[in-house]
């Protein structure tokens, strides 16, 4: 992992000047964390992963980020290493040799909120979809399938046996989690999408804009399904907000249309797989702090679950 002592090594790897200072981490996600690097040439965001990714796959977001920026999406520019790559491994001799990192333009971001300006959210999503090229790649199961009734029941029994504090909550929600998977249908006409547009990755900036970060999960998806996901996340169960997002998206030329329950497939699939992963990892975790983090991750679902009733309220708002 990085430490403040790695500041010079990062600056050298990306030719970012001198007088380097590394502070943080200033933000953390499920897969990695971000540090702030200040040098003689300005501030930068440095991302490191908790487990090193396939670095050959990391670069695949570069073209999409460039296309999104050309469509007016506010997102940090990618800073390339001295060899032109979008990532680098801190060289031997630094305080923490062997750490894979990326560097981005620094943008002053405010804390996450689902109550962003709905018109800005809608127009931003339309710009992302204008940037996304059609693709014949298959859609990953994470975004396309549920886990099924038997798996949900087995998972609930397993966490209950292990004494998970959230086991009763999962039990109470089990019927809704199973029922909502009935909406699942295939993705139609996929394009390259961001596929991770939760409030953690769509953030307000200090100067009042909406900024999209973390494109590393991009891939094929039906734009209508990503629109449905954004209506859920940033509509915040308010019909007026959902309508505003939807109207702004259409006015800005977004290609997606949300007209039926099946358009919520990606949202339902992600809920299912996140729930399954959080619970399974909780069972396998050996440290109390990690179990606490995973329990909190799972409890984000019952705090605001995707249910048939919720889907129908959104459909009524945007019809």
List the helices and strands and how they pair.
Layout: H1 7-13, E1 21-28, E2 32-39, E3 42-49, H2 55-58, H3 62-70, E4 78-79, E5 88-89, E6 100-105, H4 118-131, H5 149-161, H6 167-180, E7 191-193, E8 202-204, E9 210-212, E10 219-221, H7 223-235, H8 239-251, H9 265-284, H10 288-303, H11 308-318
Antiparallel strand pairs: 1-2, 2-3, 3-6, 4-6, 5-6, 7-10, 8-9
Explained architecture:
The chain has 319 residues and is α+β, with helices and mostly antiparallel strands. It is built from eleven helices and ten strands. The chain has helices at 7-13, 55-58, 62-70, 118-131, 149-161, 167-180, 223-235, 239-251, 265-284, 288-303, 308-318, and strands spanning 21-28, 32-39, 42-49, 78-79, 88-89, 100-105, 191-193, 202-204, 210-212, 219-221. The strands form three sheets. Strands 1, 2, 3, 4, 5 and 6 form a six-stranded antiparallel β-sheet that branches. A two-stranded antiparallel sheet has the order 7-10. Strands 8-9 form a two-stranded antiparallel sheet. Strand 2 (32-39) and strand 3 form a beta hairpin. The radius of gyration is 20 Å and the shape is globular. The model has no long low-confidence stretch (mean pLDDT 94).
């Amino acid at each position: 992992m990085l430490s403040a002592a790695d500041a010079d090594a990062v600056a050298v790897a990306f030719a970012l000047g001198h007088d380097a200072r590394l502070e943080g981490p200033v933000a953390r996600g499920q897969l990695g964390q971000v540090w702030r690097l200040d040098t003689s040439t300005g501030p930068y965001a440095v991302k490191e992963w908790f487990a090193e990714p396939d670095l050959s796959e990391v670069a695949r977001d570069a073209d999409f980020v460039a296309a999104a920026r050309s469509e007016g999406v506010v997102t940090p520019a990618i800073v390339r290493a001295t060899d032109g790559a979008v990532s680098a491994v801190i060289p031997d001799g630094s305080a923490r040799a062997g750490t894979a990192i990326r560097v981005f333009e620094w943008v002053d971001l405010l804390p996450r909120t689902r109550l962003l300006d709905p018109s800005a959210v809608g127009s931003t999503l339309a710009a992302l979809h204008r940037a996304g090229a059609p693709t014949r790649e298959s859609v990953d199961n994470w975004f396309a399938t549920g886990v099924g009734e038997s798996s949900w029941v087995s998972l609930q029994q397993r966490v209950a046996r292990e004494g998970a504090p959230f086991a009763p909550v999962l039990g109470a929600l089990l019927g809704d989690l199973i029922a909502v998977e009935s909406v699942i249908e295939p993705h139609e006409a996929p394009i390259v999408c961001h596929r991770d547009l939760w409030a953690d990755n769509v953030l307000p900036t200090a100067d009042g804009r909406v900024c999209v970060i973390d494109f590393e999960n991009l891939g094929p998806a039906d734009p209508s399904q990503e629109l449905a996901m954004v209506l859920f996340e940033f509509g915040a169960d308010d019909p007026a907000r959902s309508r505003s997002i939807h109207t702004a998206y259409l006015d800005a030329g977004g290609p997606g249309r949300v007209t039926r329950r099946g358009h919520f497939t990606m949202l339902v699939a992600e809920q299912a797989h996140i729930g399954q992963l959080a619970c399974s990892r909780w069972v396998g975790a050996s440290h109390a702090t990690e179990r606490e983090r995973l329990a909190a991750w799972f409890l984000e679902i019952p705090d605001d679950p995707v249910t048939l009733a919720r889907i129908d309220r959104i459909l009524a708002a945007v019809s």
